[in-house]
Every structure is written in structure tokens, then in C-alpha cells.
């Protein structure tokens, strides 16, 4: 009748307590080696967080601007020449039932300058365009200074400047005059930013009648903007070419400006791979630091290991002790790193006026990464500790 | 007090050879009976420490058999040996091996860590064990706040907190002055009185003389292993030490 000799089990709380006791005894070393892990995790969280925040910002912008705006521009003729939209195009588009608002602009072959002393070649990248009165409403733009064109001012030498155009001309107020096509025009309004129509931001806008009478504009529209209800965007897109130019629908091209923004949002994460790789390298170096710390810790604590073996610890329990110590060490670095990364994301996002976003999967990934690193870094030192014979461990002086 | 003379630890023809042809033990027979107070004495290099490792199952013999409480340790796995140690053995070393920065209470409670006892019970029994070694008023003190003798008594409390049948003490007073050493020996005497089997490894003839039986080792062999003194340890202590 032999009694059964089964070693006592350590509760999970005891495993953690024993692991933590080893760390508590050497705080400076713990902080330094956890720092390596923290830097790696913080880098990765910040990279993911900042690109997520940027994407979130673009998506929110897209949401606000809507995706129901279509633009119609002339394509090319069969022979490769520039095509023209018919002068009736705007009226035809407005007749499509789901279309709510529509407007046209037409390029005027001239430039806008502060005075006639500035050479004509210095256009500053600003184009002069004739605009129909519905343009502002269709683009859902805003006038920051002055007014938009009305039926009366559309016939006068009056001009409304896009936000970028006003900035390039150095104009911040209305009532001043600019030199266009050999005569003075009065600035009556300045527009706010238009993310869906950056070409309008860079334009000086005048009425169609004024363009034809004062600047010799031929009257052909070059772009038609149109907004319909969200659900009918696709069907409107289908009929637009035939409606605008029934005789040559293939010479009309239709695009959706919000697609560019959506593509930008999708691409917001693409440039971060290199930075993520950098974070991964930092993490790897941190892991090597943890392994190094653990190896030294095992060497220094041979007596403690011997004592624990004499108290009845099995090899498995000694191994578990050093593994849990390694896991706690790298877990500590991971938590600190996640907090630092989240703070960096929040700080950067707030400074750029973005909504701060740290995706939960990034935090989950960081936790998983530190657990893997802690285990891998701890395996070798833990095996060494467990292999140590109790007599050798106790004989060390 | 009746002491059944069944062997708690039995060594039969034990040899231990270390790499490099070092014969630490050359064939030792020894029975440690329950309730004994035994000294293993000999000059350094005589094999005392190896004897401790054999009796304490910290190492296995090269040849020969070691039985502890009826278990042949050759037949036991490392796990089973660990369980055997946690149940039957308490160790006191020349160095105290206390965790720095950890209270006396928690140092002693660690003596039960590997027995599967829960933490509350461990601490309660640790307090009782510290009381037994006369340190009931020092539970919260850290090792650095205790004298050498007190630290060794904490180590003794850790060794006996699980009430092991056998206490193995390796030069327990080697690092202490004679006053502190006498305190530690008094604690050991008290434990022996209450039934714990004690084996003391020492090169100090005076401490050896304080034990009931002396086993003399020389060059890995037992040269003298008889019962020697009829004076009890308590009277000897009363007689004073020079």
C-alpha cells in the first residue's frame, strides 16, 4: 500500500504572484526591458491608429459631402479631337426626372490678374469660367465673403472667386477689381472650400451672359454638375450621355468626384506597411531584450531555484515560474506601449482636427503579439532554470 | 516519550561518484529512525553535503538504494520526488535563502507553496510556525530588519511550516555568532521535543555533541555511528557554551 505522491498544484493566482515577485525585486531592469516592447507596440498602434483616424476623417467628409454628385465633361471625338458638349446640355440634364439640381460651367480663354502690369502668362493656375446660377446650390458650396452671382450681376463685369483663386491673388475682401481679358471686373464674392470640385476652388467665376458679351465666350459648357437622389445615381449615370448629346453619346464622359475621395480613403492605410515593419523590428529587438533579461535572471537566481526545488517545486513549476515572469514582463511592456500608442494617435488626430480612432483589432493584435513574444523569449531561460539540478543550484555561492 | 524505531530514511550501500572520478560516498549504510536527533559530522570534503543530498532526495545515488518513508527513490519520477520533498522534508541551510523585501510571514508561507494549500491557510499556518520559533511579534518584518539569528529562525519556521517528519539542517549556525546560534539550537531542540526527526550536518564538534547520535564521515565512509550521549539537548544547552 504505497501512498500516491502527487505534487501540489499552483493556483493561477500563485503562478502570477511568484512571477511578479521576481520582477518586483529588480524594478530598474524590468522598466528598461519592458521599454523595448513598449516602443515597438506604441509604434505599431500609433501607425495603425493615425492611418485609421485619417481614413475615418475622409469617410466622414465623404458622408457629409454625399456621393450623389455626377459631373459630365466632353470626351474626344472619333478622330481624337476635343469634343464639345451641346449648348442645350444643361437644359436636357435638368429634364431627367431624378435630377434635383444641375449647373454648368464653361471655360473662358482668358486669365485673371491683379493688374494689367502683370504679364499675361502669369495665370497663377487660375482659370476663368462662366458659371450658371445653380452652381453654388448644386455643389452645396458656401460664400464666405460677399454674394453669389444673380441674374443681374451675371450680365455685369462681376466676378466670384474660388477659395484657392482668392488666396493666390492675395484677395481677402470684395469690392476690389481684377484684370480679365482686357478690362476690369469687380470681385463681388469669395467662395469657401469645395472638396468635391477642386477645379472650382481654382476658378474665377462670371455669368454666362457676361462671358459671351464681354470676353467673347463661345457658349459651349465644358462641365455639367448634377445631383440626384442617392438611389438613382446609377440610373442617371446610365442615361446622361444620351441625354446630353443624343447624336454622339460616346463623346461624353461622366464621372463621380466622390470616387476620388473614396479611393483616397481606401488608400489611407496603404503607405503604413513600411512603418508597421519598423514597429515590428522594434518589437523583435524588445523581445530579444526580454529574453536576455530572463537569461540573466535565471543565472542570478540559482539559489532561489534550488530553495524552491527543496521546498518541493517540480521542474514544471520552476519552468512555469520563469515563463510567467517573462509573460508578465512583456505584457507590461505591451500595456504601456498600447497606452502610449493610443495617446500618440489621439494627440496627432486632435492636432489635425481628425476623429481619433484606434481599432480594437490593433489592440487585440498588440496583446497577442506581446503574449507570443513573452512566451518565445521565456522558453529558453525557463528550460534552463528547470534543468538546473537542486544541488548545483544550492551549492552556488 | 515512545519512539517507534522504524526507519524514516534508509541508505543501503550508497555510493556517489561525480564526474572527474570524485568518489564523494564510497558505500554508506545508514538508518535515520523516526524521532531521532542525529548529527552527521566530519571534516570538509568528507562527503557530508553529499549525505545531505542523498537523505534529502535532492540527488540520486550512483549505486545503492535510498528509501524515504518506504519509497525507493530510484523508482520515483522527478515529479514524485518533488512531492516527496514537499511532504517529508524541511531544509535549513547555512545561508538563510530568504527573499529580500518580502515579510517574514510571506517567506514562511512560501514553505507551503508547493503543497497545494491555498494562500489564506498558508499564511495562517506561517503565523503559527513563526510563533513556534519565537518570532510571533515579527510577522511583518522584512529580512533586512531582522538579526542573523532571527533570519535563521524564520528559515527554520519555513522548513517546519508544513510539519514535515524530517528536518535537515546543513550547518545551521555556521553564519551566526554563538548567542544567535544557541537561539537557533534551542528552537531545534523544541521541535525535536515535539516529535520532529532532525538531522544536523556540521563540522562543529560541540553541536555534534549536543545531538543524541553522531555519524562520523571520513573520505566518503562512515567511521563511527553509535549512540553516544545520554544527556538530552536541553540539559546541554543549560550547561552553557564557551
TrEMBL record, chain A:
Organism superkingdom: Bacteria
Alphabetized InterPro entries for the sequence: ABC3_permease_C (IPR003838), MacB_PCD (IPR025857), Macrolide_Exporter_MacB (IPR050250)
Subcellular location: Cell membrane
Membrane topology recorded in Swiss-Prot or TrEMBL: Multi-pass membrane protein
UniProt protein name: ABC transporter permease
Transmembrane stretches, start-end: 30-50, 274-299, 327-349, 361-380
Any single Gene Ontology cellular-component annotation: plasma membrane
A Pfam family this chain is assigned to: FtsX
Keywords of the record: Cell membrane, Membrane, Transmembrane, Transmembrane helix
Higher taxonomy: Bacteria, Bacillati, Actinomycetota, Actinomycetes, Streptosporangiales
Species this chain originates from: Nonomuraea turkmeniaca
Residues covered by the ABC3 transporter permease C-terminal domain: 278-390
GO molecular function, one term: transmembrane transporter activity
UniProt record similarity statement: Belongs to the ABC-4 integral membrane protein family.
Domain MacB-like periplasmic core residues, every copy: 31-217
UniProt entry tagged with the keyword Transmembrane: yes
